[in-house]
Design goal:
38% of the residues lie in helices and 21% in strands. It is α/β, with parallel strands linked by helices. It has a single domain (3-17, 31-222), classed as 3-Layer(aba) Sandwich (Rossmann fold). The model has no long low-confidence stretch (mean pLDDT 94).
């Protein structure tokens, strides 16, 4: 994507009512106004709040929101030019149950109050395979502790990935730490039983993986 195109998207994002781009200072300083008030001040309902972390183009957030009109979805990514597509689609389709937040995943405890979130989806994260990149792996113990701070006690976690490494690493970590693995599937399109949200929504890249017969995996779990 050219820098001119990026700039255009950044500018358009600023006009979207469903996009929030707080500064780091605002978030860390505790002045982000929607913390603890996403339901009352933005969605204007009492429906469950579901996050998609590292939402990329926002395809999954929008797909989930279409499948579940009785839930509120928030796609989170640091790259606003990416989720511009999802935000624009949501506006064009008059969807009022999906929003986008531009911030770092590490800062979500500053953007959401304790127990404000019902579910978290992590879709196709970078597996960060090199050992020294472990700290950036989105299902490592530190990240899970962070998610726990905003999730309701029985809140659900979902990991959908094309990385066998990420799938195996996460399963091992969950079992080792005594977290509750509710469902695991190492090839959702070959083995039946995956929730409809897993198989009925496909991102652009997922379509490409499937064309080369790459297995898509899924884990549903709770952090204890």
């Amino acid at each position: 994507m050219g820098s001119k195109n990026k700039l255009k998207r950044f500018k358009e994002n600023e006009t979207f009512a469903n996009v929030f781009q707080p500064t780091r200072e605002e978030v860390v300083g505790g002045t982000f106004p929607l913390k603890g008030k996403w339901r009352s001040d933005f969605f204007k309902n009492d429906n469950p709040v579901v996050l998609e972390l590292g939402c990329g183009k926002g395809e999954y957030s929008v797909g989930l929101a279409k499948l579940n009109p009785n839930k509120n979805f928030i796609g989170i990514d640091i790259k606003g030019a990416r989720f511009w597509r999802g935000a624009k689609t949501a506006i064009e389709d008059s969807m009022n149950n999906v929003a986008f937040l531009r911030t770092q995943i590490e800062l979500i405890e500053h953007c959401f109050a304790k127990d404000e979130v019902d579910e978290i989806w992590i879709t196709f994260p970078d597996p960060q395979i090199k050992y020294k990149r472990t700290k950036h792996r989105m299902t490592n113990a530190e990240f899970l502790e962070n998610y726990k701070k905003v999730l309701k006690p029985n809140g659900l976690m979902h990991l959908k990935t094309d990385s066998e490494f990420m799938h195996g690493y996460t399963l091992g970590l969950l079992h080792g730490a005594g977290h509750e693995v509710i469902y695991a599937n190492h090839n959702v399109y070959k083995n039946e039983g995956a929730p409809k949200e897993v198989t009925s929504i496909q991102t652009f890249y997922e379509g490409q993986y499937l064309e080369i017969n790459k297995a898509i995996t899924y884990i549903q779990f709770r952090i204890k």
